Amino acid sequence: xxxxxxxxxxxxxxxxxxxxxxxxxxxxxxxxxxxxxxxxxxxxxxxxxxxxxxxxxxxxxxxxxxxxxxxxxxxxxxxxxxxxxxxxxxxxxxxxxxxxxxxxxxxxxxxxxxxxxxxxxxx
Length: 123
Hints:
Blueprint: E1 7-11, E2 22-26, E3 30-35, E4 40-43, E5 46-49, E6 52-53, E7 58-59, E8 64-71, H1 74-87, H2 89-95, E9 102-107, E10 112-114
Antiparallel strand pairs: 1-2, 3-8, 4-5, 6-7, 8-9, 9-10
Helix pairs in contact: 1-2
């Protein structure tokens, strides 16, 4: 921010709009969230969504409901959020040790998979 204070960014909770998943404090870089909670449709008896797994060419088959990533830029955060969503726990492992990167996967069952650096961004 112009006054030198970090930006406060709320991470929405698709399960309960009145109970955010956290408040991030960012002094630089970017943050992005990807998920299957809004852009989805039903085909027969199954739900489809818009995030395509490049390995299969189909909507990603994942236990993730949403994934939020912090990265050195907004563009990198968007890519990291998609990667976290598609790969889940494997995506969290990918973030580990990357300077300026952190993330959290919200699973369909309500569980959260945070990276080691995630807590450092929480207010």
